[in-house]
Amino acid sequence: MKLIDILKEGDFDDLGLKGLGSELDRDDDQYDPETDKFSMTKQLGKMLDSRGNPNPLDSVETRDGAVVQLTMDQAANLMSLLKRPPVNGTDRQEKEQFQRDISKKDKLMPFLDANDGKTMQQLYIQNYMSDTTKMALGNRGRP
């Protein structure tokens, strides 16, 4: 006689917890693998992580299907704009809009055409930052 013959399926499923934590067993409805595939933050992170490899990654794929080449400096500058901590609720919305926008080639290219990180930062400030966010950053003493 085997153990599987003695135990019925479901005898130990709950482990005596009486359903505690069962709400965690449900799948997250909001997760969309298609959205995750084009996450610019993840793609830039993978690119930056590959710096020491013999064949480092040098491109990202946009939502409109374009494969865009970029340098490690451009990737690092974009990542710093994406990872900058928000200073207020408006800033958080502006950063989310920036993240959505740069996942499309036509919105990403002006940032890649910028000469350096400072120019890229100025372009971000000009296109995405509201006066409220600029004031909040000024009060904190950060650019």
User: What is the H/E order?
Assistant: HHHEEHHHHH
- Strand numbers in spatial order across the main sheet: 1-2
The rounded distance between the terminal residues' Cα atoms is 73 Å
Main sheet characteristics: 2 strands, antiparallel
| Rg value | 23 Å
As a percent range, the share of helical residues equals: 40-55%
Give the overall average pLDDT.
81
The strand count comes to 2
How many structural domains can be distinguished in the coordinates?
A: 1
Gross geometry: extended
Question: Residue ranges: pLDDT <50 for 5 or more in a row?
Answer: none
Structural class comes to: mainly alpha
**What's the tally of helices?**
8
Would you give an account of this structure?
It is a single chain. This protein has 143 residues and is mainly α. It has one domain (32-133). It is built from eight helices and two strands; from the N terminus they run H-H-H-E-E-H-H-H-H-H. Strands 1-2 form a two-stranded antiparallel sheet.
List the helices and strands and how they pair.
Elements: H1 3-6, H2 33-37, H3 40-49, E1 59-61, E2 67-69, H4 72-83, H5 89-101, H6 105-113, H7 117-128, H8 131-140
Antiparallel strand pairs: 1-2
Helix pairs in contact: 3-4, 4-7
Give a brief outline of the structure:
This protein has helices at residues 3-6, 33-37, 40-49, 72-83, 89-101, 105-113, 117-128, 131-140, and strands at residues 59-61, 67-69. With 143 residues, it is mainly alpha-helical.
